[in-house]
Amino acid sequence: MRPRSIFVSDVHLGCKHARTDDFLRFLRGSQPEFLYLVGDVFDGWRLRKGWYWRSAYTDIVERLLEMARTGTRIFYTPGNHDDFLRGFRGLPTMENIEIADEFIHVTADNRRLLVMHGDRFDKVTTNHLWLTYFGDAAYNAAIVFDRSVNVVWRRLGGARMHISRFLKDWVKRLANSYSRFEESLAGYARGQGCHGIVCGHVHTPALVERTGEVAYYNTGAWVENCSAIVEDSAGRLQLMSSPS
């Protein structure tokens, strides 16, 4: 069944650890009515440090343009790694593509969802940028270590270990505790008259729905895992996640 809407973020094109081929396969198998790119699709931090561009990146861009030409409406809300795109907010783009800091998506069952990357509500990112850069470098080093260890460990018959994911989750839990990330986003969405918030940034996929409260949806990432949030024709949201 064709999904009504798809929300994805944190693909990090330009980072050597991005699950680029998986993302391209996902796009080629999708043609939703609405596609939300919820920030950090491109990794400007990596690209500025050293240009790294695979042919698959071009294929992804071409596929996105093809989706727009064939009827999918694409909404792009930049994140902290692709903040260079914020300069294009409000400017004319090709048909069916819009760029803005945030969007309001109305589901098939008439719920209002605020869609934004979420970095504005991460106090570490906004107040301690040097720490964010340091953490990004440490995280990439952890991914390299993770994959190197797993090559040996799995040859010895061990199950795959997720060292980098554990590190990322631990750091993000600390940052979330400091920033009150989820609570701040939910409060902002409530102030915009929305029933839920869809965001990325922290790389941890989540579907949190509590009766009478603002729902929290996080798209996850395409580095440690491959995840997206998908809306069906009835307005139900589900987390799509493939094994890493």
Tell me what you see in this structure:
With 244 residues, the protein is α/β, with parallel strands linked by helices. The chain has one domain (5-242): Metallo-dependent phosphatases (Purple Acid Phosphatase, chain A, domain 2), CATH 3.60.21. Helix content is 37%, strand content 19%. The chain has 7 helices and 11 strands. The chain has helices at residues 20-28, 44-49, 55-69, 123-127, 129-155, 163-179, 181-191, and strands at 5-8, 34-37, 73-76, 97-99, 103-106, 112-115, 196-199, 206-208, 215-218, 226-231, 237-242. The strands form 2 sheets. A 6-stranded mixed β-sheet has the order 4-3-2-1-10-11, covered by helices on one side. Strands 5-6-7-9-8 form a 5-stranded mixed β-sheet, with helices on one face. It starts with a strand and ends with a strand.
The string of secondary-structure elements, in order, is EHEHHEEEEHHHHEEEEE
Number of helices: 7
Question: What is the helical fraction, as a range of percent?
Answer: 25-40%
General form: globular
Could you tell me how far the N terminus lies from the C terminus, measured between alpha carbons in angstroms?
A: 25 Å
**Mean pLDDT score, rounded?**
83
CATH superfamily label: Metallo-dependent phosphatases
Offer a few descriptive terms.
about 240 residues; alpha/beta; Purple Acid Phosphatase, chain A, domain 2; 6-stranded mixed sheet; 5-stranded mixed sheet; 7 helices; globular
